[in-house]
Amino acid sequence: MKRSILYIACLLLFAGCAQGQSNSFASLPQPKPGEKVADFAAGCFWASSEAMSELKGVDQVVAGYSGGNAPRPTYEEVCSDNTGHAESVQVYYDPKVISYAKLVEAFFYAHNPTELNYQGPDHGTSYRSIAFYRTPEEKEIIENTIKSINASKYYGSAPIVTEVAPFKVFYPAEKYHQNYYKLHQDNPYIQGVSVPKVEKMRKKEKGLLKPEFS
């Protein structure tokens, strides 16, 4: 579960949303012709799903788990930090509208990549920052973006600690985690933790946003 005082305060509300939810996992869509897929871990996937979905050229975002070893983990198993997975998002995008480089850039501004194994009030390896690559070119883009942001001192003197890892497998999370940000705007965790992260990305990446969010 979310490791924060704020989350404890809204635990009963969240439990009510999840009550009766068995491990009914979401399914992965097939990429459309010409569409590409990218994967990132940026702390709680409720915020990162929303942030990435607001970018022009992004068609779908699926919340899930990646970077671990155990097959088909549940939310509770991932949050135990025993499976090695991180809360992640799989992004389906049109490279003719938004480049992989711009997705990577938005990813680094949609969370704090200088925080090792935590994001704000959420602590544990399941909240670590990871940029997954599928090709040598994508790896180079990620590494160059890290160098550029570090050189800009956008995050002050704190260096980016994001893992740069080859993509292996992505497991979609339970259905109730999908689109959670939009469906639970009254959740105190969403208002107190997720909304500021999304607004941070919006402010930094105004030119990349879909019209309804710009």
From TrEMBL:
Keyword Nucleotide-binding carried by entry: no
Residues of the signal peptide: 1-20
PROSITE patterns: PROKAR_LIPOPROTEIN (PS51257)
Reaction equations catalysed: L-methionyl-[protein] + [thioredoxin]-disulfide + H2O = L-methionyl-(S)-S-oxide-[protein] + [thioredoxin]-dithiol; [thioredoxin]-disulfide + L-methionine + H2O = L-methionine (S)-S-oxide + [thioredoxin]-dithiol
Coiled coil: none
Classification via InterPro entries: Met_Sox_Rdtase_MsrA_dom, Met_Sox_Rdtase_MsrA_sf
Family under the similarity heading: Belongs to the MsrA Met sulfoxide reductase family.
Underlying gene: msrA
Name used for this protein in its record: Peptide methionine sulfoxide reductase MsrA
HAMAP family in alphabetical order: MsrA (MF_01401)
Domain of life: Bacteria
